Amino acid sequence: MTTPLPTAAAAADDLSKPPDRRRRRLLGLAAAAAALAVLVLLSLALGSKPLPIGEVAEALWRDNGDPRIIVVGQRLPRTVLAVLVGIALAVAGALMQGLTRNPLADPGLLGVSAGAALGVVLAVWLMPAAGPLLQVWAAFAGAVVTACAVFLIGSLGGRGRSPVTLVLAGVALGAVLQGLASTVVLLNANVFLTMRSWQAGSVADLGWRAVLTVAPFLAAGLLLAAFAARGLNAVALGEDLANALGANQWLTRIAVVAAVTLLCGSATAAIGVVWFLGMMVPHVARWITGPDQRWILAYSCLLGPSLMIAADVLGRVVVIPDEIPAGVVTAVIGAPVLIWMVRRRNASGL
Amino acid sequence: MLRAGERASSRTMLRVFAVTALLAVLAVCCAVIALGLGEMRVSAADVVRALVADAGPALETVIVQWRLPRVLLGLVFGLALGLSGAIFQSLTRNPLGSPDVIGFDAGAYSGAVLSIIAVSSTALVIPSALGGGIATALAVYLLAYRRGVHGFRLIVVGIAVTALLGSANTYLLLKANLWTAQMAAVWAAGSLNGLDWGDARNGIAVIAVLLVPLFWLGRRLRMLEMGDDAAAALGVAVEPVRLALVVVGVSLTAVVTALAGPIPFVALVAPQLARRLTRAPGVQLVPSAAMGALLLVSCDAVALNVPPQALPVGLMTIVLGGAYLVWLLVAQSRKEMR
């Protein structure tokens, strides 16, 4: 928001940037990290049995009975999972927005999560005995096919095209994949039972096993994302200018698709389809930092988990002792944001 | 000049007429074939004999009592969805402005789920589905309204509201017991399963009543397509006519949704396919209706007989219709690229 020409910033980044801007970005990053830390503490403390912060801290260091069981046994794994999923979806969203240059891109909205979900459903149906690792790989298979299809559709069409076309194609693709998944689910009561809780995007009761299953893939996806960030800055300049700068766009595209597949596939395999988080977070990040993809990704890594944990905590405290899944909360927050974005005069903004 | 234009116009009319007749004949053929399929295979000749003359009590029971209501409803619901889609696409002047895209289905489903969970029976499903659908369509329209309703804005608002309601439904089903949840899930997919002559009589009667005003409104809809000012100059009372069309369009979808659950994408696809086949300049009511009937009756026959276990027809239409929508958008983009 601070540069009049968003596309110019990337190329001229290190040379002409005023030093106070860098300091401001770093300060913002520190503030975001602090907010995330506070939210993590809240997530450990709040729930159907709220605990004082002192007891939470004590429970983390040594065995103090019930608080230890609640905090380390239940709230810590779900908090870590929420952090991982939040990072994954926010970074995946930022990458997709960067590559398609479409402000409405979101793993859920564009059907990539639906592809991953179809993979998981097929895995549960065809190989019910196989473990969660196979489900993760099946999710990758579904996600990579959908991501490629979405980006192919996104690369069609001339300049000045409405960003909505891609969203519509993605939503239609998602509807097809979801229809196929529903077909499988309705034909098998077993799959229905397994999928019912998973579809809602809840981080509760999954334990360390889910965390450990997806963590390595997330790490790999983040590394790829970091590698692709500079290339995405060139993509933002448009195809011709990026070629003139000598950027290897195909390498960037492949890295982005691979990263989105790893991030979105593992997040979906862990907790199901979560809408809108990947759309909202990069917008907030861009609003704070300006158009440099490296900063957007860094901020997304902190803001994404913050939003996910906030949604989880909110879902926990609104209907005590019941719980609303985090994915439901993000949809309730995200839908009005999407409506607000399309109601603005200019829906593009990238 | 005038005569050339007249000739072109009459050629278009001829083509529209021929295509519509062909679609109608195909739909009836599909219906006859569908009547013969099932546990007990019946040849087309025997089906026709059972329908028009006496063919013995066994055949009579299977064809007329058991299978006919479902197939008839397939035809009539398809017709209603095609008409409803044509009305909305014409009013919004956008191929994507059909009731399923703008959130009507999701709202109807939310209403149904709420009632199934609240009273744990399907007794109140029909009124609450209608209420939910109409309220959602209204909310989407109002949220998208900003100095007029721009087509794409309407659709994205519809997507957002659909996602919101979808999550809420998932949560509600999570809280329900397994049996209730599965009942709601089957209804959600849109199915002609379990519809008998009672449903068929009600459904067909209501849709027939809704068709009557369309004879009068249809011409005015064509005039509205030319723009509000032009239509007003031609003597159309724009706002009342538009309101009447919206009411008829919503009611047509609502009847189908209430009896069979949301059957997605027929309303979206039928008018577009019909328009491409007739090569007419705009969306037209009668060919869309014939196309809708053909689509629904053939999809239902496939969903019922091809998989090992009968599937809701809505899953069939969502997969086919969604694929068609993707193709439509891709084709549009490629045209713009050239």
Tell me about this structure:
The complex is a heterodimer of chains A (350) and B (338). Chain A has a single domain, classed as ABC transporter involved in vitamin B12 uptake, BtuC (Orthogonal Bundle), CATH 1.10.3470. Chain A is mainly alpha-helical. Chain A is globular and about 65 Å long. Chain A is built from 15 helices and no strands. Chain B is an all-alpha fold. Chains A and B meet through helix 8, helix 9 and helix 15 of A and helix 6, helix 7 and helix 13 of B.
Q: Any descriptors?
A:
heterodimer, A: 350 residues, mainly alpha, ABC transporter involved in vitamin B12 uptake, BtuC, disordered N terminus, B: 338 residues, 0% strand
Radius of gyration of chain A, CA atoms, in whole angstroms: 20 Å
Using only C-alpha atoms, the radius of gyration of chain B works out to 21 Å
Main beta sheet of chain A? none
Give average pLDDT of chain A, whole number: 82
Structural class of chain B: mainly alpha
What is the CATH class designation of chain A?
A: Mainly Alpha
